[in-house]
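Lab channel / #folding
Pinned by the channel admin:
"Please post every new chain as: sequence first, then the structure tokens as a reply. Keep commentary short and put observations after the output so the thread stays searchable."

First post following the new format, from NK:
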Amino acid sequence: VRNLVQVFEQYSVFAIMMAAAEEFHACCHMRGRIVTAPARPAHWIADPIRVDMRSKLVPSFTMVSSAPQRPAPRSINRNAAVGRQQACQSGASGASAEVVVIGGGAAGLLAAITAGRRGRHVVVLEKNGDIGRKIRISGGGRCNFTNVSPDLAASFHSSSCSSSSAPPSLSSPLQLHANSLTTAAKVAGSAPATCKRFVQKALEQYPPERFIAMVEAHGIKYHEKKLGQLFCDRSAQQIIEMLRNECLAAKVEIRTNCHVTGLHPVEQGALLSSNHGAHVDGEAPSSCRFAISCQCTDGRDSDLSDQPVSDSITAESVIVASGGLSFERSCGSTDLAHKVASDFSITVRGIRPGLVPVLPVSDGSEDSWIRELAGLSLPEVTVAIGGATFTESLLFTHRGLSGPAVLQASSFWGPGAPCMTNLSDPLIIDLLPNLSEDDVLEWLHTRASASARAASRERSHNHLWRSFPVAEELCRRLPRRFANAFWSARAAPAIEAPDVAAPLHKLPHSSLSHLAHLLKAWNIQLEGTEGYPKAEVTCGGVATEELNSHTMETHAVTGLYFIGEAVDVTGWLGGYNFQWAWSSGYAAGSAA
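Reply from TO:
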């Protein structure tokens, strides 16, 4: 009877029903239906036995795609897995794992959860004192955790640029879904073909609907802000706690304050070190491919001091999810992933800050006046650089330019940017994106004619005529503060206006044509960006041709995976990079 009771508790009908509901909910999302998932009781997620039964008893739904299917992940026999784990341990508990994930961010945690659900012994090594630092500060503290735009793969780019592909040229509106507004980020063209194909494989395995299903299963409320961007209603901390609870359910071990200092292949006759300092000579088990060295300050044993303690762990598979250099001050980001790739002779390219404010040339520049407009925003402009064009809002800062349109374009500027051949290429701003240059010129002529007629009427009636300078006419289309500064400091000198206070009808036709062109193509020379401390992502990384697009495993080194920001895949602003983290993490966790 006791045995029967134990079996019933482990294989409870409740666990089966909840797992089936979650899978059904994810499937409904994929089919375009919105179904409210039943809330899980608080004790259920903390019970690893019940959660583990889901993967054993409930078959997973799979997406049917015309694309070639990835190879099936290696099946895991738990008895065999335990044997391999014991073979790797070198006589001390905690000295090894089947899968080690370097980095406790978005991509690393999803990879750990996925591998743990398959019965793998997973250890996450996180440099900071807690997991999910970048998740916590993302989206203004509310975490823009994904994007539900129709063609996700076209929203990513890499640092490689071939003759057969070009950066996206964004000029026609995209409808997100039936009841959405026209996007401000206008899209035409596509991501470079090789990058799009690479990203598509991961997105097919783990589309946004699957992560949304997990969010809803944990009772996290969210909303769509704009352009398909999904945010938590309350706090990004909810996403972190969800991932932490899923790690607990998948029996994933998380070690914080562990700074990885080296990753080396384990060879025959190698000297292995345990976390207790014991050493074992002899032949290394074939399943232990890597030795990870780290400095730990969390006092996992009896030593509670803050002095770094050297440690080592061996693993069959290593997933590098340490990200890039973005937010290096606030999140302690490092270039560990790039160093590991270089140590294994894996190509790394195009490393630069992305989604970052830009700095116009200050010394003697005709645009140095823009710093006086700090705090002012233009609601809709089109910004172009390096062949990429984005239509969104622009913000003037005390150092330069920011706002969504500028942040998007910044990823295509700098050494290593796709198709960026000359760093002297200017940033081009279209101040009136809804009008063509001919329309702008016609509008200027119309206003000039109206100004001339008004002046004639006033003179014929012997009334004192009050002239309206050009800046006043520009205020009809642009914010007054910007119009006044733009005309007096930039436009008037450029078109050689006879007087800054001159009315519009006093300007010759050539000057009106020049002004129309300037309003449609305001060129700003850049001297740089605000760098990694203000960058939201790190562009560049491990070259995509070095990785298996189905599993994120390197072609050169068996058992070594790179995911998330460590890979040369960068998405647009608005949750795309989080979705890449979830999808690439799932791909690696399913195979490691």
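NK: The mean pLDDT is 78.
TO: also worth noting, The CA atoms of residues 63 and 204 lie 7 Å apart.
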